[in-house]
Design a protein that fits this description.
- With 669 residues, the chain is of the alpha/beta class.
- It has three domains: 343 residues, Glycosidases (TIM Barrel), CATH 3.20.20; 199 residues, Rossmann fold (3-Layer(aba) Sandwich); 54 residues, Immunoglobulin-like (Sandwich).
- The protein contains 17 helices and 26 strands.
- A ten-stranded mixed sheet has the order 11-10-12-13-20-19-18-15-16-21, with helices on both faces.
- The longest helix has 27 residues.
- It is globular and about 75 Å long.
- Alpha-D-galactopyranose (GLA) binds next to loops.
Amino acid sequence: MSEWTWPTPGISYGGDYNPEQWPRHVWDEDVALMREAGVNLVSVGIFSWAMLEPREGEFDFGWLDEVLDLLHANGIAVDLGTPTAAPPAWFYATYPDSRVVTRDGVVIGPGSRGMVSPSSAAYRRAATRIAGELAQRYAEHAAVVMWHVHNEYGAPVSDDYSPQSVAAFRDWLRERYGSLDALNAAWGTAFWGQVYGEWEHVGAPAATASTANPAQQLDFARFTDHQMRACFIAERDAIRAHARQPITTNFMAHQSYNTDLWRWAREVDIVSDDHYLWSPDPEAHIGLALSADLTRSVARGKPWVLMEHSTSAVNWQGHNIAKRPGEMRRNALTHLGRGADGILFFQWRASRSGAEKFHSAMLPHAGTGSRVFREVVELGSTLGSLAEVAGSRVRPQVAVLYDWESLWAQELEWRPSDRLGFRERMRTYYERLWRDGVTVDFAHPEDDLSGYRLVVAPASYLVTDAAAKNLTGYVAEGGTLLVSCFAAVVDEYDAVHPGGFGTPLRTVLGVATEEFLPIRGAAEVELAGERLPTEVWAEHLVLDGAETRGVYRGGPADGMAAITRHTHGSGTGWYVSTALSVEALAPVVAAVYADAGIVPPGRPEGVEVITRHGETHDYLVAVNHRDQDVRLDLAGTELISGAEVDGLRLAAGATAVVRAGGDRAGGPA
Ligand code: GLA
């Protein structure tokens, strides 16, 4: 790790800046307006490869010199991009074999953006060369405070079935398994007669007549993640050979599928994330909170940068909803409350041409007289008043288990029900906790969990023996564990655990599953006299010490145990064998909170209050998503207005940041 400090004083504020799309005179207007908006950090050069290296090996840095000098002269720092997410036309023409081949054999052409094959040696060479050239030239430039490698690894394309990818996959498998016998055993190739006798016959899981071998598909997902990370590491090291500034690449947290961010986060100096609201979701701010908590968690609690979000609508969803007045500010402050020390947007000035001209920007087509620009200026001033919050930490008492390998495995074909999804369960459990005002970290199932009162596993289909041991030990030592249905079904090779479904957690939960019983229609669970509606999923549980708390009424598991509780060592393990809704989960988690000694703060519905703990003070970030004013029992100095408050009236849609009165005044859970 290089020696570095946070890229800007206080909270970083700005966005992607693409001056190469504009004539020179516009740049002067840009920097003047950036100053007006309080912008102190912009990401430059992310898609500029064709302008920086117009022909292979011929570089033109003159225009970038001018941009960086201009920004620096105006007090705006630069997060300098490597442009490797959009190779120039010459690259595709010279190295046509570097193009990605899809699962169906379609060769991906140029003329858009997106990575070429992450296994292409020619790409690796070209990418590290441009990254190294940039680092050499700008390592000492006073404007450059951070490096931004590539853009959103894994989007829009990652899986590659080209010959070079297949060869690299084979090498990766040799390294992983050592022998073909080990590979055949791990992949269970005796099934459907897929046994391999020669390494040369092993390939990527390209289009097949029926479903491809699931263990092979799971390994291919791991391999793809590994290859992209190797591309990142190669560029990062090419930069580090010359430069000392922190290095990042922008993640996509819960929206990312192909990157195991636990592994990625270990490789960057600063974690950064992109988040966009999902238009069809009327409560997309809950997904935003999830994404922010996940980002902070992969950053292991350290401050992170929100590298991109939007000031208003995006243009790549089907029906793109503009943000309502104040919504951008609520979004930004929610990210900040959940640990972001940088609030950036895609992008500074809306593009006139190209694929994203209908995407909102800090400076919209309508110009400085627009609502959006006014709100951008206002947000800049707000963030300016929150400088002292920078560096403070969020410290939840609850962890939610999140494992990309389990996501990859669960989403393969031919599961018992395609209506039971990883992301859906994750969101449902998260939303329950969010509505209860309980802030959470995410954790990997093999992490040290001893610092948490409660661990929740909404979607743990794949559980390794090491994870099971970890969870069992956590409960034995006094922890409370809440596990949702379809858990601990397979090992890391997508093979059913010996002894049946749920076996690895049998000791800690006192229960295992004999058979999955997906529900046609609906059923109910009776819990402490209450009837909770449920659908999609039920299980035939076999109790091994656990007590029954909820019983199925109706449906295929009528009369059987649905929810169980088990004491193991000094802790408790709960199992919820059906896919309860956010509302139906309420009484279940209430009982679990009681076991864990967690007292939800009882905030008004639709209001979130998140605590950031500083060295001397706690900061309470309050966001009112409702259309009504609310009163909150917060006391201290409201930093945006400077007012002393003792009981805070938070207007409809408003935000506040309160430095709690006195040292370390208590905040919500
Ligand atoms: C992604 C990309 C950006 C831009 C935005 C638009 O996050 O990184 O370049 O395309 O989406 O929402």
